[in-house]
Amino acid sequence: MANLCTKVTVRKRPIKNGQLSLYLDFYPAIRHPKTGKLTRREFLGIYIYANPKEKFEQQFNKKMLQSAELIRCRRIEAIINEDFGFIDHSRGKESFIDFFSEQMEKCSNRHNWNSAFRHFCDYSQGKCCFDDLTVDFCQGFLDHLLKVKTPTGGTMMASTANNNFGKLIAVLRKALNAGRIKDNFIADLKPAKESKTKKEFLTMEELKRLAATPCKHPVFKAASLFSCLTGLRISDIIALQWDSICKAPDGGWCLRITTQKTKTEATLPLSDEALALCGERSEGQVFKGMSKCLPALYLKDWIEDAGIDKHITFHCFRHTFATLQIASGTDIYTVSKLLTHSSVSTTQVYAEVVNELKRDASRKISLKS
Question: Global pTM?
Answer without folding.
Answer: 0.56
